[in-house]
Amino acid sequence: MRKRIMALLMAVVMLISLTACSTGDSKTSSNTQETTTNQSNEDTKDSGNTTINFRYWADNTDYSILMQSIIKKFNEENGKGITVVGEETPWDGGAYSENLFNAAMGGGGPDCATWKLTSTPLFMNNNLLANLSPYLKEWDGYSDIDENMYNVMKEASGTDDVYVMPWNVQVLYVYYRPSIFEAAGVEVPTTYEEFLEAVKKCTMDTDGDGKTDVYGFGMRGGKGGQEPWGSFIHGEGGNFEDLTSADSVKGMQDFIDLYKNGYVPPTATSDGYNEIIANFQSGLTAMTIHHTGSSANMVEALGDDVSAFPFPAGKGQWTSMGDTETVIFESCENKEAAFEWLTYLATGEGQKMWCEGTGNVPVSKTVQAGDYFQNDPFMKASIAGQSYAGILPILDTTTEWVSSIWPNTVGMALAGNLTAEECMEKLQNELYK
Q1: Which domain holds residue 362?
Q2: By percentage, how much of the chain surpasses pLDDT 70?
Q3: What pLDDT shows up at residue 20?
């Protein structure tokens, strides 16, 4: 049993690393110490306080300082005698989750922590997470978060209850070049069908030499491409539960046709993050799909000649969501106080400070309505996608599926060696074997 648990844990760690969207962010963490305790909180403690131990990771020194300032502000202003003691540990390629699991199983874990959804099944199977639904029912801030976010949390736990608290997300959207749209006479698509038509119209021979100079879409056929691909499957009404359905197969056929008919670069079968971004910035492609992690570099490279729109709806609608959440552990003795802290991060001042400071997308509708987010077209596209964003199924097979099965199988289909039906049958069988 112990071997099976550890095997599943290693799969979770690999899955987190493999399915995370590349941000293109050049910042790296210089805060590599094993544990940093927020000593600034010590002077706020007194015998009447409830102390909550909170474990988190920070991607760089700026984020570390920001989290410490959020903790300090909460401790000074919550007015309920709650003192959060922040314990920072490195992400370490996903080993954060492994270390958190070992600590929780050993009885020495924190009261609450920052989180990735891919870890949820393992912790749920060992009864380590507190059910947040009773607290959410009494919380007056519940409706400040889109209902779909709670549904995604339920999906990850495999129950009808919420065990994971939304915090901040990265939602995939479509980048486009306004200058190319203008040259092609194309308006921003509002439906899936219009999107496919825009891809065709934006594929152009601009100098009349009989060769394509601009491709309508930057397809990601290499690793990580399963996330934007999922929008095509759902656009035709398909889903991940049954990849062999007629609608799912039709979405796959759309994907194949874009390649077969020359609407995407010929290198699309192996293109990954670096390639789709470089092709878009060079003007080789009119559209591509990513998230706010690359928006600063886009603006730096292209100025006003870059904008975004949410992936539009067809018979269905879906876009991939990168996630960071929080949880309370079942072992926490003061769950009400811990929940107070989690809500501060989700919809309170902590939400505003963190998302403005890191550039991540807030889940709070109140925070989303602020000028900082409404004046940013990439944030607006991300916010619009929250109502239909989702994740891939979290299964024992998902790690291998995203790292090798998906790119190899879809690559064969794009090359004409598998039909859409054959491709989807293989993807279904390998994901749910």
Answers
A1: 2-171+321-390
A2: 89
A3: 40
**Are the C-beta atoms of residues 216 and 285 closer than 8 Å to each other?**
yes
Say which CATH number the domain at 43 has.
Answer: 3.40.190.10
Are 398 and 382 part of one and the same domain? no
Same domain, 413 and 267: yes
* CB burial readout 259-281, b (16+ within 10 A) else e: beeebbbeebbebebebbbebbb
Q: Which residues, in sequence order, are CB contacts of 117 under 8 Å at separation 6+?
A: 152, 153, 156, 164, 323, 325, 391, 394
Do 137 and 232 share a domain, yes or no?
no
> Can you read off the two tokens belonging to residue 244?
């062999």
Same domain membership, residue 254 and residue 110 = no
Is 190 in the same domain as 327? no
Of the given ranges (25-34, 42-51, 415-424), which has the lowest mean pLDDT? 25-34
End-to-end CA gap in the chain:
21
The stretch 298-322 carries a mean pLDDT of: 98
Please state the three-class secondary structure of 235-272 as a single string.
Answer: HCCCCCCCCCCHHHHHHHHHHHHHHHCCCCCHHHHCCC
- Residues 261 and 402 grouped into a single domain: yes
How confident is the model over 211-238, as a mean pLDDT? Answer: 97
Average pLDDT over residues 77-97: 96
- Amino acid identity, residue 99? N
Can you give the pTM of this predicted structure? Answer: 0.89
Confidence of residue 40 (pLDDT cuts 50, 70, 90): very low
406-414 helix and 420-431 helix, angle to the nearest 10 degrees:
170
Tally of domains in the chain = 2
E-only strand ranges, 13-139: 36-37, 50-56, 82-88, 112-115
Neighbours of 125 (CB within 10 A): 12
